[in-house]
């Protein structure tokens, strides 16, 4: 199977394993999250080893191997994005499987097992933007920058769990803007960015610069995903807020 088919298959299968683990009734909330991380990671790592043995892998749940920095093809995975939500048996968690080629998010699959969906990096019909904009924020710690931008744009705040769930909510028409400034790593946003870009959405850093992957330091703290015509408005509002906050 090709890279896209493989990413979708691995993400979907990992999601099914996580659902079975979630339903077994053997784990309390925090223990369930830890078990989910381990089980999904073990499956993904073994699947990639078998199917793409010559590619490098960067996973949230694995010790980083600096040899990946010399690789052209690097799989960037988050076996369980939204561990807290998974442990709480909510639906807003995800599985991320992405392939960065020369640092670009070329292939991605985001499984939303709680919804029975896997979205991948292929052309998709974009939803219409709502008359009143809706901006996604963390359900537990919304960033002050996002709150300020939402106020400037007259947007409604939509709290949600994992990064993958929020990014895919834009693609699914549940919200219009996902602006994150509270800190992420490459595995948090590589697959969502690949899916968003392939669908024709805007996906960038919070200053509008391109997203780049397979860096020595995988910390990638900010992200903007929205429809392309909204991006200039969001970036301008964020720049105004940042300038005022620094004054």
TrEMBL record:
InterPro entries linked: CysQ/Inositol_MonoPase, Inositol_monophosphatase-like
Enzyme superclass (EC): hydrolase
Residues reported in the UniProt entry to bind Mg(2+): 60, 78, 80-81, 188
One of the protein's GO biological processes: sulfate assimilation
Keyword match Magnesium: yes
GO MF, one example: 3'(2'),5'-bisphosphate nucleotidase activity
Required co-factors: Mg(2+)
EC number: 3.1.3.7
Domain of life: Bacteria
Keywords recorded for this protein, A-Z: Hydrolase, Magnesium, Metal-binding
Entry protein name: 3'(2'), 5'-bisphosphate nucleotidase
């Amino acid at each position: 199977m090709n890279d896209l088919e493989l990413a979708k298959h691995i993400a979907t299968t990992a999601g099914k394993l996580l659902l079975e683990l979630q339903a077994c009734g053997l784990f309390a909330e925090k223990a369930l999250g830890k078990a989910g991380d381990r089980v999904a990671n073990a499956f993904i790592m073994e699947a990639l080893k078998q199917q793409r043995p010559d590619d490098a892998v960067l996973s949230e749940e694995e010790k980083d191997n600096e040899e990946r920095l010399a690789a052209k093809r690097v799989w960037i995975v988050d076996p369980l994005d939204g561990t807290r939500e998974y442990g709480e048996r909510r639906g807003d968690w995800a599985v991320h499987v992405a392939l960065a080629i020369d640092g670009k998010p070329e292939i991605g699959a985001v499984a939303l097992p709680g919804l029975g969906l896997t979205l991948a990096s292929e052309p998709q019909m974009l939803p219409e933007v709502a008359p009143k904009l809706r901006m996604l924020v963390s359900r537990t710690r919304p960033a002050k920058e996002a709150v300020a931008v939402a106020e400037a744009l007259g947007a409604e705040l939509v709290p949600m769990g994992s990064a993958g769930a929020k990014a895919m909510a834009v693609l699914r028409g549940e919200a219009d803007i996902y602006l994150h400034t509270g800190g992420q790593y490459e595995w948090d946003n590589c697959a969502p960015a690949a899916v968003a870009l392939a669908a024709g959405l805007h996906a960038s850093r919070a200053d509008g610069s391109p997203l780049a992957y397979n860096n020595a330091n995988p910390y990638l703290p900010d992200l903007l995903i929205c429809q392309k015509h909204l991006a200039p408005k969001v970036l301008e509002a964020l720049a105004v807020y940042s300038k005022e906050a620094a004054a």
